[in-house]
Amino acid sequence: MHGAFGSIVENRYDTAILTMIRSSPRREQLTEVDVSATFHQRLWVVCAISGALTIALGAFGAHSLSQYLSPAMLNAFHTGVTYQMWHTIALMALLGGWRAALPRVTLCCWIGGTVLFSGSLYALALSGVRPIAFLTPVGGTLLIIGWVALAVSGWRHASRR
Questions:
Q1: CB of 101 within 8 A of CB of 29?
Q2: Which end of the chain is more exposed for a tag (fewer CB within 10 A), N or C?
Q3: Bridge-partner residues for 33, per DSSP?
């Protein structure tokens, strides 16, 4: 909002939000994602699509690509499938078992890391275009950061008890 009226409304809104946060018994969790039902449902859809793609891509690699790709490229493709599945399962476990607010950094890093890591390996294996491989370590780094963020979030949650 613009102008003096907008500033008054924003300041009152900010004050109301701060009051709610200060009075909330869960205020320490607000630095993480306080997941709405819709957001949670969308993440489950992402997991389901990723799981289905993993199975389809794994079958495609095992039954169709072996006659077209070198063993090294087939191995790269297989590595992408494996990492995608492990992180799909990890995301599902996080969504299903995490009792606190979901750690935002972990969610973003796992999803982005899986897309970059596995996606670049798929693209490299199928196209043979080597420059795309520079995305693989970026994706891998995001996956690692996601795991570290999960550990930090778990540590913080445990120390609040």
A1: yes
A2: C
A3: 102
